[in-house]
From TrEMBL:
<protein>
    <submittedName>
        <fullName>AMP-dependent synthetase</fullName>
    </submittedName>
</protein>
<dbReference type="InterPro" id="IPR020845">
    <property type="entry name" value="AMP-binding_CS"/>
</dbReference>
<dbReference type="GO" id="GO:0005524">
    <property type="term" value="F:ATP binding"/>
</dbReference>
<dbReference type="GO" id="GO:0016020">
    <property type="term" value="C:membrane"/>
</dbReference>
<dbReference type="InterPro" id="IPR020459">
    <property type="entry name" value="AMP-binding"/>
</dbReference>
<dbReference type="Pfam" id="PF00501">
    <property type="entry name" value="AMP-binding"/>
</dbReference>
<feature type="domain" description="AMP-dependent synthetase/ligase">
    <location>
        <begin position="12"/>
        <end position="416"/>
    </location>
</feature>
<keyword id="KW-0547">Nucleotide-binding</keyword>
<dbReference type="InterPro" id="IPR042099">
    <property type="entry name" value="ANL_N_sf"/>
</dbReference>
<keyword id="KW-0067">ATP-binding</keyword>
<dbReference type="GO" id="GO:0004467">
    <property type="term" value="F:long-chain fatty acid-CoA ligase activity"/>
</dbReference>
<dbReference type="InterPro" id="IPR000873">
    <property type="entry name" value="AMP-dep_synth/lig_dom"/>
</dbReference>
Length: 592
């Protein structure tokens, strides 16, 4: 069959790749499996139930889940195949953002996972005149359960209506509205059609590696990134397209346990997770003491010196792999074929280290507005420090100011109820303006250098690309977060949030008393001096005009809840600066 709508992936999976274990979610400590046949059956049941609730094509239904689970997949299928529009929402956003999104999208029903999310939604329910009902996946006393909608759809007499609606849906029809987290202002509703997402899945498919001798039924996926994000959602359809089994992780905190249990072949990751994994490996290796630590550090040296990516060659590389790097692979379950990385720039140093440790990372690039992949590396064509080649069905044009612009079938329809911002998002020739600065090298690899809006000019007229400096600074194990500032000032400075856990262990090893609370630690002169050495080292690799001349340590962990990070863990620069304005004025000698 020809795949033109997102629900076609599920129907084709039943035809070509029927699985006894299509989706697997853990409930009450036990993994529960859903077959492809049962998935389609439940999806049809939800469709019929929604029709009985009065849902019509074009109606909006919100989906919110703390961790991805099979119920979300069933709801997505049930909503999409009757022409309704899903509105996936980040679980971590503030109630005010729930209020704005629900009203802007005119949400009619909301399906959510648990009591915490229910409390958030109930706070704003009375402010949303279109909201007719809220259903939960968990059993919550006094709250309608999603099984009630399943029960409404038990009678198969209306299945013809579902099938007729399904046939009437065109690839150009709206499938979902995804509200971007945004680093400034209100979220924008990105309208993605069925064609947008389907075209991106099919164009990205050739970049995912196939392993000789492995049948589709052998491949296990561990999914833990938020499925409300288009990155994980596109992969969710891509895995269905290949008939893979998808295990939904319980939470980021239980990832280690879930990896051991599932032993996955493919996982999608964000760079911060790679950084955390490496920090944990490094701490364990260096704290082992004696010969073990010496072997670990020797192996890192061998890894660093390795010139060509690929399997170990030569006696030293083989020994290092056997003694050290095989254990890294075992820590990821022992079966990893590849990690797929997106959402932010991955440190080339870490990328090379994992590649040389036999853990390939396919780094890619895209935006919600591009469904999302614009470019991605692929097996045999990995170039570290780049995001790979542009997908075959897209055209990328680098504008005179270096901005990356893109045209093609996966580029979004527009911003919901916002024609002005939609018009501003495109060039006169119809290319979408990504807001990112980059270039394509002579081998066709796309390089991302910075966010256009985040670049600033010092009072001396020199341009600073803060993301480049920040990504290099975060290579330090002492630094969890960093934000470079200096727009209109004479020099760049930085706010630094230390990695408080690492710092506590460092102080203990050194016999230093730097305090116990984050506030006390941030005021430690010993810590500031040590982090100063990290910044001095960074500055040796920078031009004089872009060197970080001063920095201040912030007294708390930057978080989504504090409004300092977006749900995808990007910096909210304006909010960070406002929160630490006194520290800013101190660095620049301004009056408070």
């Amino acid at each position: 069959m020809s795949i033109k709508r997102i629900f076609d992936f599920a129907h084709e999976a039943l035809q070509k790749y029927p699985q006894d274990e299509m989706f697997i979610t853990k409930y009450a400590g036990e993994w529960e499996k859903t077959s492809t046949k049962e998935y389609l059956h439940l999806g049809n049941q939800i469709s019929r139930g929604l029709l009985k609730l009065g849902i019509k094509p074009g109606d909006k239904i919100a989906l919110i889940t703390t961790a991805t689970r099979t119920e979300w997949a069933v709801m997505d299928l049930g909503i999409s195949q009757i022409g309704a529009v899903s509105v996936p929402v980040y679980p971590s956003i503030a109630p005010d953002d729930f209020d704005y999104i629900f009203n802007n999208a005119e949400v009619q029903y909301c399906f959510l996972s648990d009591k915490v999310l229910l409390e958030k939604v109930m706070k704003i329910k009375q402010n949303v005149p279109t909201l007719k009902g809220v259903f939960s996946f968990d059993e919550i006393e006094g709250t309608a359960n999603w099984k009630e909608v399943l029960d409404l759809g038990k009678d198969e007499a209306t299945q013809n209506e579902v099938e007729d609606l399904s046939k009437s849906i065109n690839s150009e029809d709206l499938a979902t509205i995804i509200f971007t987290s945004g680093t400034t202002g209100k979220p924008k509703g990105v309208m993605l059609t069925h064609q947008n997402i389907v075209s991106n899945v099919i164009a990205s498919n050739s970049r995912i590696p196939r392993v000789k001798g492995m049948d589709y039924t052998d491949v296990k996926i561990l999914s833990f990134l938020p499925i409300c994000h288009i990155f994980e959602r596109m992969l969710f359809y891509l895995y269905q397209y290949n008939g893979y089994s998808i295990y939904f992780a319980e939470s980021i905190e239980k990832m280690g346990d879930n990896i051991k249990e599932v032993q996955p072949h493919i996982m999608s990751v964000v760079p911060r997770l790679i950084e955390k994994v490496y920090d944990k490996i490094y701490d364990k290796g260096t704290s082992a003491g004696g010969l073990k630590s010496k072997i670990f550090l020797w192996a890192l040296g061998v890894n660093k010196a390795k010139q060509k990516l690929g399997k170990p060659s030569g006696l030293q590389e083989i020994i290092a792999d056997k003694l050290v790097f095989s254990k890294w692979r075992d820590g990821l379950g022992g079966n990893i074929i590849t990690l797929v990385s997106g959402s932010a720039a991955l440190s080339p140093r870490l990328n090379k280290m994992f590649q040389n440790a036999g853990i390939p990372i396919l780094e890619g690039y895209g935006l919600t507005e591009t469904s999302p992949v614009i470019a991605v590396n692929s097996f045999g064509k990995i170039k570290i420090g780049t995001v790979g080649h542009v997908l075959d069905n897209l055209e990328v044009k680098i504008q005179e100011d270096g901005e990356i612009t893109v045209k093609g079938p996966s580029v979004f329809k527009g911003y919901f109820k916002n024609e002005e911002q939609t018009a501003e998002a495109f060039t006169p020739e119809g290319f979408f303006k990504t807001g990112d600065i980059g270039h394509i090298d002579e081998e066709g690899y796309l390089h991302i250098t910075d966010r256009k809006k985040e670049m600033f000019k010092t009072s001396g007229g020199k341009y600073i690309a803060p993301q480049v400096l920040e990504n290099q600074a975060k290579a330090s194990k002492f630094i969890e977060q960093v934000m470079v500032v200096g727009d209109g000032e004479k020099m760049p400075c930085a706010f630094i949030q230390p990695d408080f856990n690492f710092v506590k262990n460092w102080a203990e090893r050194k016999g230093l008393n730097i305090g116990t609370t984050t506030e006390e630690i941030s005021k430690s002169p010993e810590l500031k001096e040590r982090i100063g050495k990290e910044i001095d080292y960074l500055n040796t690799k920078l031009g004089n005009w872009e060197q970080i001349k001063r920095f201040e340590l912030t007294p708390e962990v930057w978080s989504i809840e504090m409004g300092l990070l977006t749900p995808t863990l990007k910096l909210k620069r304006k909010a960070v600066k406002e929160r630490y304005l006194k520290l800013y004025n101190k660095m620049y000698g301004h009056e408070d």
